[in-house]
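Toxin-antitoxin system YwqK family antitoxin: structure tokens wanted.
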Amino acid sequence: MLIRKKLLGLFVVSTLSMAMVQAETVTQEVLIVGEDSVSAEVNPQDVPSNFTLHEEHFNAGKLSERGYLYEGMPVGEWQRWHENGQISTEAWFTTEGKPAGTWVYYDDAGKKIKEEIYEAGEIRETIEY
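Answer:
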């Protein structure tokens, strides 16, 4: 078991009404457990308490997934990475937690391999490269 202090970065979160934007530099002690990944959820003190930064890490400590939760549901931009550090997925969610916009998928070399276009939470189009 390893506990280390980790700079989680500068995060910008807006409320659902987009009327307020807060930025905060956040550090957190992260407990490293398990063989594959570890999760961390952070509530920066100036961000509304119903927003939570959700992060998962590979066991080696590299980030595997990052996004915000609003009342337990994914909202806004989410990103996933391959274990080698290359981006894997760029995804978007509505304020209701439904898939939205264009999701982009990459192979482990960083090459775009697929796009999915969502409307009203449903896939409307898939483009393969």
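Confidence is low (pLDDT under 50) at residues 1-35. The first strand starts at residue 2 and ends at 14.

Cheers.
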